[in-house]
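Customer escalation, tier 2.

The customer says the design service returned an amino acid string that "doesn't look like it belongs to this structure." They asked us to rerun it and document both sides in this ticket. The original structure tokens are below, unchanged.
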């Protein structure tokens, strides 16, 4: 009986679920999401895997449009939270570990007499994660771009742009290595 239930659930997901999104590539799987808000504003590429208990959102809380685009062959780890109020794009082949948070907005806290939950959302910069990049466990990306083929170390908080072919770690994240194409090696920043 459990097998039959699983088969019917999968068939429902295959036939109806993808139609709710702006686009939903072939061989794309969302495994037991925590929540998905603004499906009509979410583009999912080909062969994307979104692991269990992740939350995807593209909700225009600060303007007229919000877009979340996840490119081809991306793997999003468990318990990820990706929340766009304007624009977030993960280019092709991006890999995120578990518990990664990516956002283009913040809670305002400018008025100390009003509870933060009652203050408006503050739009920061659009976010782009470059092709082939890897975000380690517990990484937070808040209104910043990460170049292509970057490694962001576990527990890092990215609030400023990271250039292509870089390794960045820390709070706030700082580049500690870059790839030298002449020597074909990763070199430590001194």
């Amino acid at each position: 009986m459990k097998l039959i239930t699983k088969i019917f659930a999968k068939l429902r997901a295959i036939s109806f679920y993808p139609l709710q999104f702006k686009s939903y590539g072939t061989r794309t799987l969302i495994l037991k999401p925590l929540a998905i808000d603004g499906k009509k504003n979410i583009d999912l590429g080909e062969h994307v895997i979104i692991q269990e208990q992740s939350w995807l959102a593209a909700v225009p809380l600060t303007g007229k449009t919000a877009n979340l685009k996840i490119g081809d062959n991306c793997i999003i780890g468990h318990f990820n939270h990706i929340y766009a109020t304007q624009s977030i794009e993960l280019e092709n082949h991006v890999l995120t570990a578990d518990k990664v948070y990516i956002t283009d907005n913040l809670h305002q806290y400018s008025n100390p007499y009003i509870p933060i939950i009652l203050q408006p959302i503050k739009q920061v910069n659009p976010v782009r994660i470059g092709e082939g990049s890897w975000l380690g466990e517990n990484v937070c990306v808040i209104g910043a771009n990460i170049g292509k083929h970057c490694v962001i170390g576990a527990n890092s908080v990215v609030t400023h742009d990271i250039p292509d072919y870089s390794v960045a770690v820390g709070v706030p994240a700082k580049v500690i290595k870059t790839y030298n194409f002449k020597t074909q090696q990763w070199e430590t920043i001194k």
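Tier 2 assessment: The sequence is consistent with the input. The longest strand covers residues 174-180. The chain has a mean pLDDT of 93. Sent an explanation to the customer and offered a walkthrough call.
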